[in-house]
Write a structure and sequence with these properties.
- The complex is a heterodimer of chains A (200) and B (453).
- Chain A has helices at 21-24, 44-47, 85-92, 105-113, 123-134, 160-168, 172-177, 180-193, and strands spanning 6-9, 11-14, 70-73, 97-100, 117-120, 141-144, 149-150, 154-155.
- By secondary structure, chain A is α/β, with parallel strands linked by helices.
- Chain A has two domains: 6-157, Aconitase, domain 4 (Alpha-Beta Barrel), CATH 3.20.19.10; 170-200, no CATH class.
- In chain A, strands 1-6-7-8 form a four-stranded antiparallel beta sheet, with no helix packed on it. In chain A, strands 2-3-4-5 form a four-stranded parallel beta sheet.
- The two termini of chain A are 37 Å apart.
- Chain B is an alpha/beta fold and 453 residues long.
- Chain B folds into two domains: 4-161, Aconitase, domain 3 (2-Layer Sandwich), CATH 3.30.499.10; 287-452, 2-Layer Sandwich (Aconitase, domain 3), CATH 3.30.499.
- Helices cover 31% and strands 18% of the residues of chain B.
- Chain B contains 15 helices and 19 strands.
- Chain B has helices at residues 4-11, 35-45, 76-92, 107-113, 145-154, 179-190, 205-208, 212-220, 236-242, 251-261, 308-314, 340-350, 368-377, 379-385, 435-444, and strands at 13-18, 21-25, 28-32, 56-59, 95-97, 122-125, 139-142, 156-160, 163-170, 198-203, 229-231, 274-279, 286-288, 296-298, 329-332, 360-363, 389-390, 411-414, 429-432.
- In chain B, strand 1 and strand 2 (21-25) form a beta hairpin.
- The longest helix of chain B has 17 residues, at 76-92.
- The termini of chain B are far apart.
- The relative contact order of chain B is 0.14.
- Classes of the chains: A alpha/beta (200), B alpha/beta (453).
- The structure holds iron/sulfur cluster.
- Iron/sulfur cluster (SF4) binds next to loops of chain B.
Chain lengths: 200, 453
């Protein structure tokens, strides 16, 4: 998995509340398209007008935000469906970090499985960052995962395990497989406790 | 002093990974041909074998055609996906319930129906509505493809322990106020982010009074509260529901299991991190007016003006009564409301009446079994005589990935669980409601208070 240490990139304000994964990527795009191509379809319902032309109102279509790699989002970003394709679509369009007051929880977990940093901050802190990103002549943001800061001054908390996974680009399956003896021991004891769980 | 949630969580702890993160055993894993197939492909690519194929089952639901008599998908890519899912199941020894087989249907319908979902288990599926299974006293939640691959490879999941919430539904709901109305009312009250970070236990007189199918409906919408999981303590109704089902334990094992399950309910002095109470005696049948499940009012209410964008999308005006809004489509189905009692309730409204001329109404049973059982009771004849379509089991118009879509700007009263922008098709306008309310809308041709029927 791609490591995440420090990122300096354009941040786009996207304050809409309850942005669901259906909006991030339509279900029709979840039917086997290669991960790398999904970025073209991210947010397509709001990014394009009914005729197919770009919607100039949509934030990521605005010139200054085109290369944005950081999204400053509204409350409860990524709610809804479990589709990991939503994270793949964001990653495919270049997004590496999402900041919001809260996230849909499956989406949140999916981010860390794919090297995307999801940061939870209080609403007021997110609002301030969104304002900063929207200000004329806004500078790129710097997200430092090692120091757990945004632009050197805004501190964020992150679960230590998630932090380590991103910093070192670790793969969760490999980590868990190394604990196989513990899993085997659990099952052996559990078969005695709850034999009906294990079909013979 | 422990909650139902605590008991199940603690019984599944394989290893404490520190900082509140635990490695948990996964007792039951469900797959469908959309996310499950993707997981199978990832696993194969990495050359990993499935650790416990006997603890996973699969079913076809998302991309299958629901056209009467259909045996595959509506598109070549769907057929390919179905075939790949089927073939991988054979290769890896995971039982897949195939199209036309007793056991096929929406994963969250067939898990309980087959007795695969059991009290006290951890149950995961690559689908956000996995919380449905909590109705039987399981700890169940949805995961993404990477986590799904992790489950197949290790039969475990890495999880941050959530906090606990209890939502008490007090009092007896009035006639025509169903499980769907109860849970929509709670979402309306505490919002779609009200459950973020929590495992919710539903309790109270109104919940205990529900049959299993109604409890499944309540738990189904836990994810629309933002909750990690939703659950209901198992009781005699749960045991009676499960007894004799295909994957449920039998004989001495059954007795042993029930004895264990009786110990699961939250202790009387258990503490929850948060409590909500909802008075059910005054509730009206609920219906959504906006583009989030929290945008909900009583069917006798007026449309609020606090979300102008949602109103614009929905083509509605602030201050008008929701009743009387003209409807184009009605969808009775989905893992929320496609079980036999749901279909009976809808048929009870439809019997001897006809759908309004301008309304296209569909009934899509949640599973192959439900379809057979409903037909044995003659429910299909009631729907067909009223001009409804009676279709094959699947997710259908809940998400439309199989091509069952609501037309742009058409208005649909739907028994499903999401009214997001574009959920039922680009620019489709969705109103979530109970099967009875949906059936009544089909007859009246507009949103209507089912209590007047
Ligand atoms: S019926 Fe709808 S919500 Fe349920 S699993 Fe299928 S697509 Fe998801």
């Amino acid at each position: 998995m791609q490591k995440f240490q420090t990122l300096t990139a354009v941040a786009a304000p996207f304050p809409q509340r309850n942005v669901d994964t259906d909006l991030i990527i339509r279900i029709e795009r979840c039917t086997g398209m290669p991960k790398e191509e999904l970025g073209k379809y991210a947010f397509e319902m709001v990014r394009f007008l009914p005729g197919g032309a770009e919607n100039p109102e949509f934030v990521l279509n605005q010139r200054r935000y085109r290369g944005a790699q950081i999204l400053v989002c509204g409350e409860f970003f990524g709610t809804g469906s479990s589709r990991e394709v939503a994270v793949w679509a964001l990653a495919s369009m270049g997004i590496r970090c999402v900041i919001a007051p809260s996230f849909g929880q499956i989406f949140f977990n999916n981010c860390f499985q794919n090297g995307l940093l999801a940061i939870v901050l209080p609403q007021a802190a997110v609002d301030a960052l969104a304002q900063e990103a929207a200000a004329p002549g806004a500078k790129p943001f710097t997200v430092d995962l090692e120091a757990q800061t945004i632009n050197g001054s805004v501190r964020f908390d992150i679960a230590p395990r998630n932090r380590k996974m991103l910093l070192e680009g670790l793969d969760e399956i490999g980590l868990t497989q190394a604990m196989e003896p513990k899993i085997a021991a659990f099952q052996a004891a559990d078969r005695k406790r709850r034999p009906w769980i294990y079909p013979s | 002093m422990k909650t139902l949630f605590d008991k199940i969580w603690d019984q599944h702890l394989v290893e404490d990974l520190g900082d509140g993160v635990h490695l948990l055993h996964v007792d039951r894993h469900l797959m469908h041909e959309l996310s499950g197939q993707r997981g199978q492909v990832e696993l194969k690519k990495r050359g990993i074998r499935i650790r416990n194929p006997e603890l996973t089952i699969g079913s076809m639901d998302h991309v299958v055609s629901t056209v009467p008599g259909a045996k595959g998908g509506n598109f070549p890519w769907a057929d390919k996906m179905i075939e790949s899912f089927r073939a991988e199941g054979k290769r890896t020894g995971v039982k897949i319930y195939d199209i036309g087989e007793d056991g096929q249907g929406i994963v969250h319908v067939v898990g309980p129906e087959l007795g695969f979902t059991l009290p006290g288990t951890t149950l995961l599926c690559g689908d956000s509505h996995t919380c449905t299974h909590g109705a039987l006293g399981a700890l169940a939640w949805g995961i993404g493809t990477s986590e799904l691959t992790h489950v197949l490879a290790t039969q475990t999941i890495v999880q941050q322990r959530p906090k606990t919430m209890r939502a008490r539904f007090e009092g007896k709901p009035a006639h025509a106020v169903t499980a769907k109305d109860l849970i929509l009312a709670l979402i309306g009250k505490i919002g779609t982010a009200g459950g973020v970070g929590y495992a919710v236990e539903y309790a109270g007189e109104a919940i205990r009074g529900l049959e299993m199918e109604g409890r499944l409906t309540v738990c189904n919408l836990s994810i629309e509260l933002g909750a990690k999981a939703g659950m209901i303590a198992p009781d005699e109704k749960t045991f009676a529901y499960l007894k004799g089902r295909r994957h449920a334990p039998a004989g001495a094992l059954w007795e042993q299991a029930v004895a264990h399950w009786r110990m699961l309910p939250s202790d009387a002095d258990a503490k929850f991190d948060k409590e909500h109470v909802l008075d059910c005696t005054t509730l009206a049948p609920q219906i959504t007016w906006g583009t989030s499940p929290e945008d909900v009012i009583g069917v006798d209410g007026r449309i609020p003006g606090n979300k102008p964008e949602a109103l614009a999308y929905m083509g509605l005006a602030e201050g008008k009564p929701i009743a009387g809004t003209r409807v184009d489509r009605v969808f009775i189905g989905s893992c929320t409301n496609s079980r036999l009692p749901d279909l009976r309730a809808a048929a009870g409204i439809v019997r001897g009446r006809k759908a309004a001329k301008h309304v296209k109404a569909w009934v899509v049973p949640g599973s192959w079994r439900i379809k057979q059982d409903a037909e044995a009771e003659g429910l299909h004849e009631i729907f067909l005589a009223a001009g409804f379509e009676w279709r094959e089991a699947g997710c259908s118009m809940c998400v439309g990935v199989n091509g069952d879509l609501v037309e742009p700007q058409a208005r649909c009263v739907s028994t499903s669980n999401r009214n997001f922008v574009g959920r039922q098709g680009p620019q489709a306008r969705t109103h979530l409601a109970s099967p009875a309310t949906a059936a009544a809308a089909a007859i009246a041709g507009e949103v209507v208070d089912v209590r007047s029927f």
